[in-house]
Amino acid sequence: MLKQVRRTAHRIAQRVSAAGCLFAVAAFAFSAPAAQAADAVRVNLAWLPQGSTGGILLAQAKGWYREAGLDVTVMRGYGGQRTVNEVDGGLFEFGYGDPVSVMLNRAHGGHAVMVGAINTRWPGAMCYLEKPGFKVTTLKDLSGLTLGGGGASPVQNIVPAWLKQNGLPPDAIKTVRLDPAVINTALLQKRIDLSECWEGASLPVQAALAKRAGQQLGKVYYRDFGLDMMGNGIVTTDTFVASHPDVVKRFVEATYRGYAAMREHPQEAADAIAAQYPVLDKTILMQQIVETNGLITDDPAHHKTGWLRPERMDATAGFVARAFGTGTKVKATDLYTNHFVE
């Protein structure tokens, strides 16, 4: 009888011990740090997938965001200003945006901020169809022509101020607002003389379309005539930087890992991106990548990729204030931080 009692007690003790172990495991599981779960991040590309945002697309394709503990969702956008405003509104954590859009956002009470450069120079240009006897050597050669730009494009304000800066009447080039989807065809059909075009984005598209139509595309870069502005980069908000600095740091580092790989192995990058987006024209994508690689490397010595030059940001803020009439509402230092690219 005594042996039976002892055996029963031993079995009960084993069960209690096992239950205690299970409880301990469960308690450990529920008390595990939340940091083990990937941080969800939404990214707005500002337009369709293309070479200008290739570093983001490549980092996603290669799994580098996952390695950084980020669960990234990449979505197309509908223009720079809308993208920046949507980031500011909390619809996205990050976006591909430009300092003009950031400054206008902040001038209207927003909190958008750039945390790294991708286009360290302004990528904008005016494209035209080459023809015998027409050669652009000075801006006066463009007087009287019509420029087609998107309805919400900054060129509507930039061009008049830029012309004035170059000693020409602000209306020397007439600007018209078009749906961005018809700008390319409007140029080919000669309904406009000039079209807005962007390195790493629409410029290779327009060049390819012109070539297919038996035409040759010419271009005039704003920066070749005194427009010293910073171009697009990574945009988030002051609030997100303050509340999630580690997420910003990991996203920025993984993104520039993508751009570094794109610069070192452009063809491999194009193949990887095209595999994710089969509808892309690989020839156009490759040219976009080549142009973007040229824009991202204009950074000073002793700084990481993505460094936003203070003097160029000062010039950008000054020009935007004149072009858009924002006055002194926003300072250049409000537009960016180099904290994550130092």
Q: Describe it for me?
A:
The protein has two domains: 37-121 and 230-334, Periplasmic binding protein-like II (D-Maltodextrin-Binding Protein, domain 2, 3-Layer(aba) Sandwich), CATH 3.40.190; 124-225, Periplasmic binding protein-like II (D-Maltodextrin-Binding Protein, domain 2, 3-Layer(aba) Sandwich), CATH 3.40.190. It has 13 helices and ten strands. 46% of the residues lie in helices and 15% in strands. It has helices spanning 2-31, 54-62, 64-67, 80-88, 99-107, 155-165, 183-188, 202-212, 238-243, 245-264, 266-276, 282-296, 310-324, and strands at residues 39-44, 70-75, 94-97, 112-117, 124-129, 146-150, 174-178, 194-198, 217-221, 233-237. Helix 2 (54-62) crosses helix 10 and helix 10 (245-264) crosses helix 11. Strand 6, helix 6 (155-165) and strand 7 form a beta-alpha-beta unit. A five-stranded mixed beta sheet has the order 2-1-3-10-4, with helices on both faces. The chain is globular. It is α/β, with parallel strands linked by helices and 342 residues long.
Quick summary:
With 342 residues, the chain is of the alpha/beta class. It has helices at residues 2-31, 54-62, 64-67, 80-88, 99-107, 155-165, 183-188, 202-212, 238-243, 245-264, 266-276, 282-296, 310-324, and strands at 39-44, 70-75, 94-97, 112-117, 124-129, 146-150, 174-178, 194-198, 217-221, 233-237.
